[in-house]
Amino acid sequence: MNSIFVRTCFGVAALLASTTIAFADPAISIYGGWQTAPHSTVNVTDGTKFTAGWDGKSFEMPPYWGVRGTYWLDDWGYDEVGLALDFNHAKVYARDNTLNHKTPGWTHFEFTDGLNLATANVLYRFKGDRDWTPYLGAGIGANIPHVEVTRPSGTTSEYQLGGVTGQLMLGVDYKFTDHISAFTEYKFNYSRLNVDIDSGDKLKTNILTNAVSFGLTYNF
């Protein structure tokens, strides 16, 4: 299943590149930051059901990061509105008390080579005669998690297409030069996961992530 993730990464990169080539005034952003996730209910088709506590561990390898390509519709007369493609490497680890007390025999449960959220977004910015610009946005796309489960019946460790992801964001961008700006942003994601694990079972859970990011943007 690694090929799913590789194809998706190349697809996102190609779309970002094509956005840059096709439009006169695109912007490319990179960011990192701090990401958390609240508890979620996990259901397995063998009848197992439990509530998982999650840790984000944003600054441990692999870290939390993302990249976004944006095109503001200035040339179309809508300079407050932008279209963006966003790839976000979020992740979650099941806490020790989940493995030790709620899932007997499970020794490993995480999505730490990423939930890998790829979304298409619409942004709106509040322009003014100032260097800083607030903005907000919403998007929808897919998650491509690296599923890591070890339990008495077997081990799963592979990339899969997990399901749909929704995204909301709110941020402020500060312009240093005509080409360089920095931003801070709050991002919320809702991801539905329906993935295969060992013994022909399926695992389902809905993961919510909250992130505070800091990044740099290059405006072409």
From the structure above, extract its key features.
Porin; 15 strands; 220 residues; 13% helix; mainly beta
Describe the protein in words.
13% of the residues lie in helices and 60% in strands. The mean pLDDT is 90. By secondary structure, it is mainly β. It has one domain (2-219): Porin (Beta Barrel). It has helices spanning 2-22, 96-102; strands at residues 26-36, 40-44, 49-52, 54-55, 65-73, 78-89, 92-94, 108-111, 117-125, 132-143, 146-151, 154-159, 163-175, 180-196, 202-219. The protein is built from two helices and 15 strands. The strands form two sheets. The protein has an eight-stranded antiparallel beta barrel.
How do the strands line up in the largest sheet?
1-5-6-9-10-13-14-15
Which regions contain 5 or more consecutive residues with pLDDT less than 50?
A: none
Q: How confident overall, as mean pLDDT?
A: 90
Main β sheet profile: 8 strands, antiparallel, barrel
In CATH, what is the class? Mainly Beta
Number of strands: 15
> The CATH topology, please?
Porin
CATH architecture annotation: Beta Barrel
In what range is the share of β-strand residues? over 45%
Alpha-beta classification = mainly beta
Terminal-residue CA separation: 36 Å
Compute the CA-based radius of gyration: 19 Å
Helix share bin: 10-25%
Order of helices and strands: HEEEEEEEHEEEEEEEE
Number of domains: 1
Number of helices: 2
Broad shape? elongated
